[in-house]
Amino acid sequence: MKADPAKPDPRKPRSSRVTSLSLLQKARANDPDAWRRLVHLYRPLVIFWLNRGGMRAEDADDVAQEVFQAAANGLAGFRRDRPGDTFRGWLRGIARNLVLLHYRRTNKHAQAAGGSDAFALMQQIPTPTNETDDPPEEIGNLYRRALEMVRDEFEERTWRAFWLTVVEGRSPVAVAPELGVSPAAVRQSKSRVLRRLKEEVGDQALSESLLPST
Q1: CATH architecture of 138-210
Q2: What's the confidence (pLDDT) of residue 199?
């Protein structure tokens, strides 16, 4: 059976799977695996944006494909020039534009209570600079998918140090004896996993409070 391209190859040693290149850097280099991982990470969120904009389910799949095609064509021009710039916000801007284009192209209006048209509904998708309007559960699901994708890149003790401190909210001092390491080592392990997670989701402003909890 062919391996899931969104998951690391378990036959490879962990050390060979860790790379200094972020997922976005690899996608810019037209790495097919990187693009599969990006789609795996972000497609559910894109579908959520489209649905919130009033798009019918049968149209959302097609427009989602257009969103990722546009992202592939434009990723070389994506920059983080301003504080708060993220891949998620950039992708959402693409989604807004393509949904409006879809309605103009088909001359259809999204169906909604009160007769709101597609343009009004699209205002429910926040502008790319206002990411706080994305529901915490949707961002938490994004982080959960990213965690699943990077899990096998780390030794068990490193992962446990991250999980116990970030997800379970325990202090490095409390966790250290349980893992047989120093509190400094626990903090270092936590930082390593968080850094890798930020690379995977293309979001340097990642909020630890939105990570899945036990």
Answers
A1: Orthogonal Bundle (1.10)
A2: 83
